[in-house]
Structure formats: C-alpha cells, structure tokens
User: What shape does this take?
Amino acid sequence: MQVSGDWAIRLLVITLMVSPLRKWLAWPRLASYRRMFGLFCFFYASVHLLAFAHFYSGWSIELLWTEFSERPYISAGILGWLIMLPLAITSTRGMQRRLRRRWVELHRGVYGVAVLACVHLIWQTRSDFGEALVYSVLFFALLSWRVSRRLQRPSATAS
Assistant: This one.
C-alpha cells in the first residue's frame, strides 16, 4: 500500500516540475507530458486510497469513519484526493475549451494537493522525517518558482 502512495507523491513532484524544466531546458514539448503525469498521479493516489479502504478497514463504513476521524493524516490524504478528482475529470482538451479561464483556476488546486500531500506525509511519520522533509522542500521550491514567475509578469492593468 505504501508503494502506491510513494508513487503518487513522486508523480506529483514530476507533474509540478514540468513547467520549470520546460523553461530551463527550452523544451516546449515537455508540457505535452504534464497531463499524463498528473493522471498517473491521480491513478496511484486512487489505488492508495482503495488499498487503505480494503486492507485497513475491509470496506467497513464504521471503521473507515473511525479511522478518518481519529487520524488526521487520513483526512489530509482524502482531502487531497478529493481535490484531484475534479482535476482528473476535467483534464481533457474538451473540458479545457468548455471551462476556459475557469479551467486554469480549477487546476491551480494542484498546489493545495501538494501542500496536503506534505501534511499527509508529515503527520503519519513517527520517527524519520527525512523523506517528508525532502518532499516538503521540493514542493516549496516548485511553488516558490511559480509564485516568483507570476509576480514577474507585468500586470494587465498597468500602463
């Protein structure tokens, strides 16, 4: 079960690294792989959630609710998955055309997923915080890069 969670968070890092790498390597075609990485991330997160529901609770609603309410890291993980669900559903080109600007705003939710993934990992860690720290630093660096790029853009309202 842990393997699926590990791959979900790795693929989330890879998905968020596409834009910086595309810029630094001057390789615009790299962007065409971002959707695939994001959908693989959602797939592995879904497998991770399903494995938890099956192996830890045996699909017992009462036990699932108890685990959900007693272990905050599970709440963070499920919330992250719930944010990814509409991102996966709206990842097609047709949905991009239909939603237009709202599609971009919706897909910025991936940053919240990154934060929740770190919270999920940190809260469940008992002794060795090394892995959680590495992912937290990576996500912080990737999110900082995006914020700095956004701040560097000239405002549309400026003359």
The chain has eight helices and no strands. The chain has one domain: 2-142. Residues 2-25 form the longest helix (24 residues).
